Amino acid sequence: MKKIDYSKWYGSKLCPFCVKKLKENDLGIREAEVSVYRGTSKVKVSYCKECGTDIVIFPSPARVVFGSIATAILMSGLFGLMFLGAEDTSTFAITGAASAMIIGTLGIIGILIYTRNKGKDVIKQIESTN
Ligand SMILES: [Zn+2]
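^ thats the input. predicted complex w/ zinc ion below
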């Protein structure tokens, strides 16, 4: 099996369904609603014009690491604010908030790693057909 140079794929937009790298004019933009704290928010999502599947952007390892660190810092900040604003500082409430924070952080890091692995799979398939 030949070795794949993933570095040239960093930041590539991939369609997991068509198994190809997408150019700007292959992309469509749609609005999606995501649920955020106490409501929903609209985000722009890129999709493949050909099949309508949401694209996967292949992140570099540095991006995954920085993304994870940024998430952890953001979550700690949120936890700090929650803690300062909390009237109920019982051990139970703090444990609950800390667990929610850790689960949230791990969840986001998990999504980052999942996206990267998914991208890697698509790249493997593209490279093997070349
Ligand atoms: Zn597609």
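DSSP finds two helices and five strands in the chain.
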